[in-house]
Write a structure and sequence with these properties.
Blueprint: H1 2-24, H2 32-54, H3 59-73, H4 76-86, H5 93-117
Length: 120
């Protein structure tokens, strides 16, 4: 039961942060809010992964932060919808840039988070 509660609380907090990004980060012609939210979630997940690899902490915290918060904060479904909207009839440079940046920044953010969590 505690695992379910951890995911529930983390997911709610992550979703609220994602909603705030959508409210306060302008995304008129480019989905910057989603790009930043997904990149931040990747960084947090990377930090968490590195931290948990070094320290043997409980599963509840992993579920709260990783599955719950990062899962609620990042959004593949919105990324997919916005990619299709950007490329309505044809895949433009902006569409391809969004796809590339989303994947590259996400991977770099996970690596960066893991590196930061390993600093002493």
């Amino acid at each position: 039961m505690i695992n379910i509660l951890a995911v529930f609380i983390g997911g709610g907090l992550g979703s609220l942060c994602r909603y705030a990004f959508g409210l306060y980060i302008p995304s008129a012609s480019f989905p910057l809010a989603t790009l930043l939210a997904n990149t931040c979630a990747c960084f947090i997940l990377g930090c968490m992964t590195g931290f948990f690899l070094k320290n043997n902490l409980g599963n509840h915290l992993k579920l709260l932060i990783g599955t719950g918060f990062c899962g609620g904060f990042s959004t593949f479904s919105t990324f997919s919808k916005e990619t299709l909207e950007l490329g309505q009839n044809t895949f433009s440079f902006i569409t391809m840039s969004y796809i590339f940046l989303s994947i590259a920044l996400g991977m770099l953010a996970v690596l960066g988070g893991m590196a930061v969590s390993n600093l002493k």
